[in-house]
Specification:
This is A to I editase domain-containing protein. By secondary structure, the protein is an alpha+beta fold. It has 7 helices and 6 strands. The chain has a domain of 127 residues.
Length: 193
């Protein structure tokens, strides 16, 4: 069965961005209908490479960490966490400095300054947005070293992730796969890779 199609049939929840789709894959796997019968379990991405102009903090928040509602911590060096009964895959994230663009955008090369400005326009684009300066090395707010609200919780984002989790659990998708059996079949163990 194609889990992504089953989850997205609802009119209440529609995935509108690539990061929403990758977050979904990090919850239910990437295998889809055609591979499900052949692979013996869920298929997860082990790594993700981001371009030189995109920060690792952003990609981790977008594709996996925002799914950890309730403060569940990841294991050392990434790995798969579990929030309630929904297992969230945390791929290794690597940035590349390789120039992949030929146009004017890349002429001067990327600048890796200490600060990154991020913002969220607010629920439904009605204003009331948040903006913060984030330390590009630590991923924390430059002003006080705290956890950035924008990177971890955009307004309404928690509701969207909660809705995704309810749909995953409500349709019995997670119950169909045995996590330990998947590790036995693939020869993988937990911990660092």
């Amino acid at each position: 069965m194609d889990y992504a199609k089953r989850l997205n049939k609802s009119r209440k929840f529609r995935s509108h961005s690539c990061s929403d789709k990758i977050l979904l894959w990090n919850m239910v796997g990437m295998q889809g209908t055609r591979l499900a019968g052949m692979v013996g379990g869920r298929v997860f991405m082990k790594g993700l490479i981001v371009g030189r102009k995109y920060g690792g903090v952003w990609v981790r928040r977008a594709v996996c960490c925002r799914g950890e509602v309730g403060g569940r911590k990841r294991g050392k060096g990434g790995g798969r966490g579990e929030e309630g009964k929904v297992e969230i895959n945390h791929p290794k994230v690597m940035g590349t400095g390789v120039r992949m663009d030929e146009g004017w955008v890349g002429e001067g090369g990327a600048e890796f300054g200490g600060g990154v400005w991020v913002w969220w326009r607010g629920e439904g684009g009605t204003g009331g947005g948040i903006k913060e300066e984030i330390d590009g090395i630590t991923g924390r707010r430059k002003k006080d070293g705290g956890r950035p609200r924008v990177m971890w919780w955009g307004e309404g984002e928690g509701k969207r992730v909660d809705e995704l989790k309810r749909k995953v659990m409500g349709r019995g998708i997670m119950k169909e796969w045995n996590w330990k059996r998947r590790e036995e079949l693939s020869g993988e163990g937990g911990g660092e890779e």
